[in-house]
Amino acid sequence: MKAITDSERPDFWLISDPHLIADDLHDFGARFKKMRQTSAGKDIAYQDLALRAFVRKVVRAKPAALIITGDLTFNGAKRSAERLGEIFAPLKEAGIALLVIPGNHDIYDGWARSFSGSEERRVAQISPADWKEIFSASYDLAASQEPGSLSYSVNLNPHWRLLLLDSNPYSSQFSYTHPMTSGGIDDGERRWLS
Predict the structure, then answer these.
(1) Which residue, of 29, 41, 151, 186, is most buried by count of CB atoms within 10 Å of its CB?
(2) Structure pTM?
(3) Extended strands (E) in the chain
């Protein structure tokens, strides 16, 4: 087996599960605070600030790509995905690829909500088409896309092909239920991988 030289090593950063809820979807009111207590240790109150600081660090380091693997949003609110796209926009300007794949919190999540005072309201959920539009720069870099899912591949350099696999089960329309967690790779994705 041939050893990989330093010049052949992939140059990317990887994070997972930022769970962003856009600041304009909450007011730090009573209902948001109650929901935040159930968020299983997720620091959702300051994600916008933390992610903007992280983007500055990535831009200074200049990797070829930043990969985010799933649960980009806290509760599948379309506005949160749009905000995440805005936060990470400086990467494109710096010539750094942003490569994303959804998690079970992202597509047609029935928990997509805004929080104001003691109330919560349903908000627009992210559809697969919305996802591809919001993160079009990721899909524009695809060497290949699996037609039945949000899976795609990217040739990071002449030695490395990245496979970003969408293993999430989600409904085909607006959902009223919690995110599903029993994902896997289906037959269509297996054929595409072959």
Answers:
(1) 151
(2) 0.89
(3) 12-15, 65-69, 97-101, 113-116, 119-122, 144-145, 152-157, 160-164
